[in-house]
Amino acid sequence: MSLHVVPVPGIGEVTVGTDLARLVTEHAELLEGDVVVVTSKIVSKALGLTSRSDRDTVVDQGTDRVVARRGPTRIVRTWSGLTLAAAGVDASNVEVGTVLSLPDDPDAEARAIRHGIAASTGLQVGVVISDTAGRAWRVGQTDIAIGCAGLAPFESFAGREDVHGNALAVTAPAVADEVASAAELASGKLGGLPVVVVRGLPAHLLLQDDGPGAAALVRAEDDDLFGLGSRDAVVAALGGSGGRGFPTDPQATLALVLDLARPGTLPVAVAGEVVEITARRDQPDEVLEAGALRQRVESLALAHRLPATVVVTLA
User: Fold this and answer.
1) Where are the alpha helices (DSSP H) in the chain?
2) Residues 267, 269: Cα–Cα separation, whole Å
């Protein structure tokens, strides 16, 4: 298999109301089965998502919850489930004094472009809407697919065997993300080439219908093991965040929580969701330890997404 990844020249400046499907077909020589990668920036410009509001205000509007914060930098989960710095709000390649926010539904925009191309050319192509994102474990950024249509967002190898006969369980290449990254390599960041055509993908990755979209690549919040930054997880646990950002754990129990809390010699009883800590009223050290233990149990229960009512009884 060989891939051809070709930037499309001549796109020019995109303004509010630009028909992106028409723009692509006017400048790109498309073939059946091609994948058209379009940057989120021109999608947002066409949708009129430029704002003169304060950048922090626009970030707030696009934020479902904060994942991590360091100084002025905020990594947030957006309303569409993406985890991005500053909710993907961008101040580059836009008029001075303005910022650009991401589309509310990138998959819908990918579908609209795909349908527009099909209507004018009769061709069935895939469409990816790309944006740049950092990686928690790596330096630098890559482009990812925040929207797609007509392309399998990932390919599951679960149940297949490798060359040594080992069964694969969780391997699932994120095809749409890989296509977005390949397109960014070809176009570059500074070349003013917001549309790229990728040709040569295996036929089984190209869908007759729109498919599930890039939303299928968003990990469910309850399954996200890294839903909070390390410092932010401590703050959330102590501050009673309600548990958002902490993954669910089907094996977690209040007994486990108590073991982690290290209750020492204080009597502790568990009845359903109620944890009762008993301290002797005339022993100040026990009373203080009971209060500290209550805080630890409450924080650990929240971090494990376990409902718990912790009470201190003075005997």
Assistant:
1) 20-27, 40-47, 55-61, 106-121, 175-187, 230-239, 254-261, 284-303
2) 7
Helix axes 40-47, 20-27, angle to 10 degrees: 130
The full set of domains in the chain, from first to last, is: 4-49+103-218 (3.30.1330.100), 240-314 (3.30.70)
Tokens 């080439």 — which residue?
193
3-state helix, strand, coil in the chain (%, to 5): 35, 25, 45
Strands laid side by side in the 309-314 sheet: 268-271, 274-279, 309-314
* d(C-alpha 287, C-alpha 283), whole Å: 6
Along the 315 residues of the chain, how does pLDDT read in single tens digits? 899 999 999 999 999 999 999 999 999 999 999 999 999 999 999 999 999 999 999 999 999 999 999 998 999 999 999 999 999 999 888 888 899 999 999 999 999 999 999 999 999 999 999 999 998 889 999 999 999 999 999 998 888 878 888 888 888 899 999 999 999 999 988 888 999 999 999 999 999 999 999 999 999 988 998 899 988 888 888 876 677 898 888 888 999 998 899 888 899 999 999 999 999 999 999 999 999 999 999 999 988 989 999 999 998
- Residues in Cβ contact with 308 at an 8 Å cutoff, skipping those fewer than 6 apart: 254, 257, 273, 274, 275, 297, 298, 301
C-alpha–C-alpha distance, residues 37 and 15, integer Å: 18
Whether residue 231 contacts residue 245, with contact meaning beta carbons closer than 8 Å, is answered with no
